[in-house]
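Hey, can you fold this one?
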Amino acid sequence: MAGPQDGGVLSIDQGAALLGGTPEKEETQPTTPADTPETEVQDAEPAADIEASQSEDGTSDDETTETQESDETEATPQLEAIKPPQFWSAEEKEIFNKAPRELQEVFLRNEQLRVTATSKAIQEASEKRKIADAEWQKLTQYTQYLNQTLSDNAKTFADRWENVDWKGVVDQYGAEEAAKLRFTMEEERDKLQRTVAAKKQVEALQFSKFVETETAKLPELAPDLADPKQGLERRRALGSWLLEQGSPHGVTPELLSNLSAFETSIAYDAMRWRNAQAKAKELAKQPKETAAPQQRQTVRPTAAPNRGTHQSARLAFLLRKSSLTTDEGAELLNLRENPR
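Sure. Predicted structure:
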């Protein structure tokens, strides 16, 4: 090794030796990922992700996601239009079609509930009607049986005991035998009376069922007689009218109480028609009102005909007729009560 005296350059070791010390050598170790600060590693990852997220044509993942969502929105099929309920009127269907979808769904749910409730009510009414018909059939059969039994028993009782001379029985058979025969007679009499009482009970139950069934038909056949407020009073008026008409024609209270709903509706129509006829005849007998002379008015060619003159002529025509139909009677009442 060349020293300084030889004109060479001192190395670091030589310099340290001259100074009397040995320098500590620093060990250089390779840098590993574990020695790299955590922040540097984290900072490096997004950059790598960004570079990896770039597609070959330079489109980012965010742009691709937006494009996919747009495509999915466009691909979503439109909801099918909701049809209005089948039995709604044309006006109601038009309102339904103009309503928002949420309201349409509410309408349909409520309509379905209504239809379900109606169907249930009809089904229950049908079942009750079947039960009532079965009960009616049983009552009818039992009534027929009682009628036949009562007729046979009454005839047998009359033939056997009606003309018995009990004094002669005592004289002929003795008091003891006569008592036995009387006891037998009383047993048969009591049995006959029980049959009569049973028949009356069955007839009362049958009549109650009849009234219940026919009353249920009135709302359809005669709505006026089924009115909650005035129906009872109208039925009473009809009953009184029928009894008044029935003296020469055989309308009795018993017959009146057994009128069916159909017969009641026909009778009610007849009562109203006859009352209208009577009212029309009374009006026809009333003195005609003298109309005040009217001033002649100039009628333009385009003017409408005088409605009052037409009504006056129609009123005079109806008053001249000897008999009126129901419609004409109602028309006459309307013209007299509402002159124009």
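Residues 170 and 178 are 5 Å apart (CA to CA). Let me know if you want another pass with a different chain boundary.
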